[in-house]
């Protein structure tokens, strides 16, 4: 299928800073892709290039198969058929809600403009506020009006830059949820920038993970979580337990048993990364049994109830690394006492082995 939006080999520099570095990214019609990465990695620059707000320096931008920017062509934002939503909503303060939403519909006759504006306002649950001015609305309501304004002209591509970051946590969850349903209900291709991995996993059909101007992994959220390409990708989605080990015969010996390290030579130094939820703790009686069988025993430093999960801080004596401080995340209520000895089972689907990264 022809991508609704395609960035090919796009690079962009601000002086000596390479903000975007040979970026390739396609979004299918109806697809919701999140561009995720740490602050300063080039997400907004990539989005602004797609929108036409930043002049393209090198590469190609296509929409529905048509070139909108390359070395010869540079369509202005208003001719690209994109809808834009930014963090600061940017509604026109002197226009009522309905006129804000109707603003991009000048080509329609007055009656059709009003009908269309009312229809999208209803879609985002803001129909009752049509005659209000922006300053009379809460942040979440303004955000919904901004979304309605972007959707009103029925853009082929919607570009969102951190659209929820101005909202407090609870409102953010609600507006995110509503936005997801509105976007998945329409046929718009959406590129949404965020630095929040949970938000990306919540919203995205696909996540493009960016680091230093490059996309390092572009995959379904579950693939990024369970098959990260490197230590950065593994560590970006959750806090991880990390220690070093050495490869012997395609395996690394760890406190929790051997892990496979395919394609790595004997003697290679590796980072072992284990997600906290992969350390499944078992209670005292089983710990003694475990010790008898030569299995690892961990000692509780502290345990904390975090709501849906409990986080247990542990120490373990590892013959290779000395004393390790580990985190285990257990579902629900699991609060062993300080000093308690626990057994552990490792979920190997959430344990990763990567060559030790050369310092970047
Ligand atoms: N107009 C500009 N002039 C000079 N440097 C810029 C400009 N815009 C961005 N940069 C630099 O380019 C790099 C990428 O910036 P960008 O805004 O794309 O990052 P980002 O991933 O969106 O970050 P954040 O999550 O903080 O919004 C940064 O080093 C930034 O300082
Ligand atoms: Mg940004």
Summarize the model shown.
This protein has 360 residues and is α+β, with helices and mostly antiparallel strands. The protein has two domains: 5-232, P-loop containing nucleotide triphosphate hydrolases (Rossmann fold, 3-Layer(aba) Sandwich), CATH 3.40.50.300; 239-355, OB fold (Dihydrolipoamide Acetyltransferase, E2P), CATH 2.40.50.140.
What does this structure look like?
With about 350 residues, this protein is an alpha+beta fold. It folds into 2 domains: about 5-230, 3-Layer(aba) Sandwich (Rossmann fold); about 240-355, Nucleic acid-binding proteins (OB fold (Dihydrolipoamide Acetyltransferase, E2P)). Helices cover about 25% and strands about 35% of the residues. The chain has 9 helices and 20 strands. The strands form 4 sheets. Strands 6-7-8-3-9-10 form a 6-stranded mixed sheet, with helices on both faces. The protein has a 5-stranded antiparallel sheet with strand order 13-12-11-14-20. α3 crosses α4 (about 140-150) and α4 packs parallel to α5 (about 170-185). The two termini are about 40 Å apart. The mean pLDDT is about 90.
């Amino acid at each position: 299928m022809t991508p609704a939006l395609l960035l090919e080999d796009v690079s962009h520099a601000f002086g000596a800073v390479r903000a975007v570095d040979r970026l390739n990214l396609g979004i299918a019609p109806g697809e919701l892709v999140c561009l995720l990465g740490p602050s300063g990695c080039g997400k907004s620059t990539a989005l602004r290039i797609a929108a036409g707000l930043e002049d393209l320096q090198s590469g190609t931008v296509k929409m529905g198969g048509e070139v909108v920017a390359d070395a010869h062509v540079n369509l202005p934002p208003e001719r690209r058929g994109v809808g834009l939503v930014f963090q600061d909503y940017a509604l026109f303060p002197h226009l009522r809600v309905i006129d804000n939403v109707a603003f991009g519909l000048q080509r329609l006759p007055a009656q059709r403009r009003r009908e269309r504006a009312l229809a999208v306002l209803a879609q985002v649950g803001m129909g009752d506020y049509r005659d209000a001015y922006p300053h009379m609305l809460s942040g979440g309501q303004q955000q919904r009006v901004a979304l309605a304004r972007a959707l009103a002209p029925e853009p082929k591509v919607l570009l969102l830059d951190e659209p929820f970051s101005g909202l407090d946590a609870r409102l953010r969850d609600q507006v995110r949820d509503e936005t997801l349903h509105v976007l998945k209900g329409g046929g718009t291709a959406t590129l949404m920038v965020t630095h929040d991995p949970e938000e990306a996993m919540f919203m995205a059909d696909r996540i493009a993970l960016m680091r230093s101007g490059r996309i390092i992994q572009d995959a379904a959220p579950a693939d990024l979580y369970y098959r990260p390409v490197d230590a950065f990708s593994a560590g970006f989605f959750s806090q991880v337990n990390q220690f070093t080990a050495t490869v012997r015969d395609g395996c690394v010996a760890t406190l929790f048993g051997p892990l496979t390290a395919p394609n790595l030579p004997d003697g290679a130094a590796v980072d072992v990364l284990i997600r906290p939820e992969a350390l499944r703790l078992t209670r005292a009686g089983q710990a003694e049994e475990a010790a008898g069988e030569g299995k690892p025993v961990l000692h509780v430093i502290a345990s904390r109830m975090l709501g849906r999960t409990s986080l247990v801080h542990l120490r373990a004596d590892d013959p290779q690394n000395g004393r390790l401080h580990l985190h285990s995340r257990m579902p629900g209520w699991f609060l062993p006492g300080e000093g308690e000895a626990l057994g552990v089972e490792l979920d190997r689907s959430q344990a990763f082995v990567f060559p030790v990264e050369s310092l970047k």
